[in-house]
Amino acid sequence: MNKTPLRLSGLIMTAVLGALAFGCGSSEPPAESVVTYGLTLSPTGIDPHLNASLELGIPLSSVYDTLVFQDPESGAFVPGLAETWEISEDGLEYTFSLRRDVRFHDGTPFNAQAVVANLDYILNPDNHSQRAAFMLGSLEEVTAVDDHTVRLRLAEPYAPLLDSLSQVYLGMASPAALDQWGPAEYQFHQVGTGPYRFVEYIPDDHLTLARNQAYDWAPSIYKQPEAPIDSFVFKFYVDPATRMLALQAGQVDIIGELPPRDAARIDQSQEFDLIPVTIPGQPLQLMFNTRQPPTDDLQLRRSLIMSVDRRTIVKTVFGDYSPVASGPLAAGTDGFGSDPALPDYDVEQALNILAEAGWVAGDEGVLSRDGVPLELKVVVPAWGSNPEVGQLIEAAWRNLGARVELTIAPGFGQLKELQAAGGYNAIAYYTFGADPDLLRSFFRSDGLYNWTGYEDPQLDLLLDRASQVTDDPDERRRLYGAVSEIVTDEALILPIRDYVDLVGFNRRVQGLHFGYQGWFPLLIDLSLAR
Amino acid sequence: MTFFALRATGGDPVANLLAQGLASPDQAATLRHTLGLDLPLWTQYIRFLVGLLRGDLGVSLYTSRNVSIVIGEQIPPTAALASAGLAVALILGLLLGVTAAWSRRKSVGDLASVLSSLALTLPVAVTGVASIVILNVFFHNSPGAPSVAGLQQLALPALVLGFASSGGIARLVQTGLAESLARPYVLAAKARGFAVGFRLLWHALRPALPPVVSLTALEASFLFSGTVVTETVFSRPGLGRLLVASILRGDFPVAQGIVVLAALLYTAGHVLADLLALAIDPRLRRQA
Amino acid sequence: MRRRVPIALPGVWLSLVVALSLFAPILAGHNPLQPVADPLSPPSAGAPLGTDSLGRDLWSRMLFGGRLSLGASVLAVSLTILAGGVAGLAAAMAGGWADRAIVWIANSALAIPGLLLAMLLVAAIGPGFPAVVLAVGVGGAPGFARLARSVFLQVKQGGFIAATAALGADPLWIAIRHVLPNSRPQLVSIMATHYAWALMGTITLTFLGLGGDPSVPEWGAMLNAGRVDLIGAPWAALWPALAISLTVLSVHAIADAIGRSSATARRSELET
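Predict the joint structure of the above. Result:
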């Protein structure tokens, strides 16, 4: 048997494979320091002034500076591009004295006119800002009093204003760049004043930042090591299964939103470390549609909540990393008082309540009342383990005796479409933020995200009042406590877990820490181990 | 064809945009007009074709970027995977086919034959997943663990993809070679004491090659469907992933653009296969 | 000469799979949707195949999953055969411009690789099982139509039928009474191969996540779900992978065998 042709083919094969394996995965050490960061969502657009994605903030909060910054530990507001500020007695006027020594990455000076230009850009209805515009509340007018003083006037007191002004969505961009590129193209040519310059962005592929060598000041919250990182490359890992692999293969140095099981494995590793970051805001929750039978019935909603073993679901899907939630706000959020009294897991009691309400067992074990079977439509988005939670809740409700139809919305657009179409009984959506005013758009009668359809003038009053209390944090907490009580008593939501971002990183990266909002790393504070 | 399938039953893409909050009602009206959705379906089709000829595939509904650019960005990783896969398919196919037809030991030949059958019928999803398991199970605790993950980036997907396509090639090589080995002139060469080995193999193999070359060109176009699954299994970036994502997101222009591209490649593959066959085998040329 | 796998093995496997699917409700120990133990636990007394990432019994899920995978693919291939068969028969019997039109439509549809065509259809309808069945069914139709048409043409040219036509019999009657029955041996082989394709197509589409509700067990979707935890707990993906491989291989083997036997039957027919 002549083995020569075979051996030759085998040789060629090995050579090809070897070339392939070798060609990727190895890279020469760069002359300057580069850190690769893994992002998880691929946003539709990355202009923080116009788009709503949280993911974009991870790179871009280092490209922009904001008027004020928020201390990552205490949440106190410290000077940023504004050196000092004054709030009028009635809470309607904010006057900011701006720094004089700051220039944008394109060389143009930062001044009051720039602030005005930015706010105009955000508030321009033609630009359709999806987040920043809403963060400005009752803002009526912005004036440049002189080159270095800017005044914001509100129609009503708006407590979250400083919180908004400390976030990347209200970061200051170069007016020249905004003018030059316009709302559609600007996202690819962003110019700020921050410690890192925006280099390039190829959607779904990568985004590059390079250190701004001319950055000669910094807010007090930046620690700024001796040798900050020269450049950051952000890559996208939409599929959760790939994130751990990417970290292990050395494709990324840092990556967030690791699946809990993968994160657990990092604890045993020498090379990698894990930071669980608690994210303030809303917990992962289901909102009940109070306008759609059968969830228009309070008793039914209560029994649905009681039939779900939230603790076990959280343990199954999230391991030990997430606290179980019990109210509309996550424990780390400012307005969080104490855990509202959500009914305990008790299937028997749930069944009792249903029986009392007139639900009887029908065919195939499905409950029915007046001949109408208990049918529930549940919609959850495809991200963040929502499908898994959705499946377990579906199982619990089927166990109870309901017919459940679970729909997974692949993206935010589809989620909104399904919501707009109506007909759903429970839908999962939540947002993040340190200021509890975010509850307003969810629970106010006319709120943009009032997907429960619940209308209560008293609740509206509480929410409005709480957003206007600018100087009394205790009063605010009390008000939001009252809001939580109403939400719980009316069984408007099924809260599941407080969000914890599991960030894995290579130990060669040091100094990794995150801002007060939880999602955004302070990139300038990173350095590489020698 | 693609155009009709998507547009006729797909519903109103602009309504989708509205729902996503990306456009206000009057912007929607303007957008409709710009996209030409308010024109009758036939007119839209003509415009689409004309645009196609000019290389303009429209605008993504998800990111408002030019579809050609969006697709263009994803071509390199898919092309890399596809070419690597094709190389593997060719090499593996030759290897298996030659072994099956040439080897003196029946068991080895049978093994090669079985492998090519497996390659032909097993779904890529299964072989992909299996390969990940095997790789990780065997190399899990070795110090080379990080490079295992690295292998998974290109080498393993290319291997899996190539394996799937190699079955057809292997079969063809096997039958072709077996046939020509039985030919009188080969036997005569053997009898004349031609050095058994490569040279003999080459002489026997040559007549079997034309259909193989055609098939390879065909497989190249099949490869695209394979990359869709492979990219998903190994979570590689590329056109396949983009296609699945755009379908789930309701981004019709991008999905349409990719499928049109695939159809073009597919047809080009067929044409290339025919041309190659003509070029290589003079007999066919005479017939043509 | 290659040794061929004896037909008994695939036949046994397929019968087993079909039987298990039919009797799934009786054989499954647990409700496939309810968690019964810790997630990703290895095989045990309560869960003979282990549990998936949400703690559901894999044995029950495999049983019901097989039902859905096989059922959906059978539905899909029936659609293919019906649509493609009718089109092919119409083309073969009618001839002329109708034939050319049908062939042209089939050819242009065939310009798109089958899997992509199916994906496109799912894109238009929206993910879900009905969409997958429809997509796979319609996706395979052009190919089947073309093959069926050539078979019908061949049969139609057979002496007896040509004679009947010459006598002025109604084409529809000829089609049903004569062409169809005589085409059967060849058609069955083609149908079997198309079933193999339909099975793979269904599983691939659900694997890519286009099958709708993920809690409903189905082999392709289960394979995808198991993919996430491959390193720590490979069995969640292992059982679907094994089942899919064995079933697809068996179907191919049987399709091959049918093809071979119909070829020999044809040969012997010609000899008589």
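Chain C has ten helices and no strands.
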